[in-house]
Amino acid sequence: MTKRITVIVGWFSSLILLFAAAFWLSKPTFSADMFSLLPKSHSQIAHAEDVFFQQNANRIMFSFAGNNKNKAFDDFQKWLDDNAIKSTFNFPSVNDLAQTFSPFKHALLSDTYKQTLSKKTTFEHYYLEQLNQLGNPFVSATLSKDTSLSLAAFIEDNLKQSQLFTLEQGRLTRRLKGVEYRVILANLAPENLGVNKSIDLAGAIIKQINILNKTYPDLRVTYSGVLFHTAENAKQAKYEMSLFGGISLLALIAMVFWVFRRLNSILLASFTVLSALIGGAIAMVLLFNTIHLLTLVFAVTLIGIAIDYAFHGMTDLAKKEHEKGYSKGTQSALLLSLITTTLGYCCLLGAPLTLLSQVGVFVIAGLVSAWLFTVLVLPLWQSTLRLSPSSLLVSQKLIKVFLYCNSLKKPILITLLVLISALFLIKPISFNDDVKLLNASSEHLMLNEKKHLLLLGQWDTQIVFMFADSDEALLQKQEQFLKRLTQLNPNFKHNSISHWLPSLQKQSDNQALFEQAKNKGTLDIAERVTGQALVSTKAPLLTYETLATSTFKPLLLSQMVVESEQSITWMSISGISSDQLINEVEKNNGIYLYNKPKQISALLSDYREYLLLSLVLAGFISWLLFSWRFTIKIALLQVTILSVVVLSMLWVCNAIQGSLSLFNLLGALLVIALAIDYLVFYQINKLEPKNVLAISLSAASSMWVFGMLSASDTPAIFSFGLSVMVGILAIYFLSPLSVLKPQKEQ
């Protein structure tokens, strides 16, 4: 007894020390951010994403509507200030803009202003109209710097195109569909986006909003941002981890106690699972700096797989066919089981989703740890293990059923194949690769996001990235691209940086146009009215470097960055159809249409095709393995059973869900790995009571664990759990048919 306890203590002490060392070395963080799971775009676009959009991950947004919106806005703004959450919308004032752009005024001509220069009478009418607008902030801020009003027109036109919001008494305001909103935009410090802090901060914000709703009648407050998705997903993942893991463990303990009727058997089964969990955690902590909580939800499945080793090991040891250790057949079957399941999960290691790679690493390492515990430690407890008479009686009844079905294997398999073929003809399966399958956020939060995208003018826009060798080449490329889009739709809208920073070539053309109009007398009215002569147009041109050292710098860098080897910019476009935009983008090098959801869905589609190929390859490898280990005839029979199981599982899931996803195929891959285990154990140990009992326990535990996952609110987890549960149910009843020559109980 002392030796056994010493071995157990030594085993877990070693695992815990390894885990502590791994955790100390890598210092991993935990995340519930769904966006962190998404695969990266190709290198150029991924870099542009990091440069321009990384800050959006920290952004939160609030909108206020109703009769009490101003009071609620002020109260909430004070609460944010008290909690060190600062607003981030700091657009330069008109005076600041006038100060920045006035040295280059005649090189910066808006399209509206250039049109007025075509005729002297047209310009005179325009000029007088602008001067007669009382309180025009653009004229009053620029007239002393530019009597021609070109600078006023440049700032006014660009603000109209770039700015959806106005400032009213210090409050950011937007009118949309007849409703006036007060808006707060803020960025959070990265340390506030951890799992626990996200939950706490989001809870505090929502609590404060609820207080405002009670304080001010007729108030509508909307909130959005990654913070709230992270908090909601983290709470859901924690809840599902504790619920699914807890219920699974209780159910498994009950099963083990019913079969072995001793406390030590429950402890041994629990120790096997604990070894798997610690072993998986060691590998995952060593290989990944950031661990997603959704990984841990999927990793609960390891409980259902790892305990299979304990079931097969303990039932074999309890029979005491060998005085020390396992029978030869069980040793062989345990090793084959480890190899096949490990190969199945290896397919996840190259997945485009970090989540799947993490699950693959966790399960593979966990299974190796559980196998080592089963092989090295469990035999020490052989003398204490007994099988309950009631469990053996149940297994003997099952054997009678299996023997009867086995005698009818040909009619059963032929009938099932015909039925499945008919079902596929009646209702063919379809696939859905939508990235939304990864999202577990509530409908309320998604509606908030949509509303705020509408307020920001980003709901129906398309984003384009541009790359060039220099800033001048980039600006010219952008201007030429916009010129072609204008030919398609003169009324389309965009927020390109070339509004504010025209290319040097365009600035030179503007200067020449202004000089020509001046020489023709078109601008004489400006001198007559103001009594000031127009200054020479031979002024320096505006450059990227100049603008980057002005008050305009934050806005410039949010849309254009010049690096040592390339220059990058992005712009949003609306009013052009997707097909037209794609056609124009494809004509140019260094221009890319950015559609993250579509790109990710395409990657998921590619990986789904890869998984379909993996399923076929797994079937072929299984046939080779069975042919080598058994015979070709047995291999054909077992592969036929595998095919029936996978096809029936896919059809049932498609009928329940309406379509299949990548995660159904991942489930199918796991089903194949587990099914091979059952087929191997049946072929080696036949329809013996201990074998049927172990496989029944294994199937029951797996169906229970994966059945728990099918209750998840996350579509991806639901699909995975449903697939495995249906597949295990099918393989449990069909795998006994693989025993070519049934062997009755001796």
UniProtKB/TrEMBL annotation:
The keyword Transmembrane applies. Keywords: Membrane, Transmembrane, Transmembrane helix. The chain crosses the membrane at residues 241-260, 267-287, 293-311, 332-353, 359-381, 401-426, 610-628, 635-657, 663-680, 692-711, 717-740. It comes from the Bacteria. Gene3D superfamilies: Multidrug efflux transporter AcrB transmembrane domain. InterPro entries: Mycobact_MmpL (IPR050545). The keyword Transmembrane helix applies. PANTHER family: MEMBRANE PROTEIN MJ1562-RELATED, MEMBRANE PROTEIN YDFJ. This is Transporter. It comes from Pseudoalteromonas arctica.
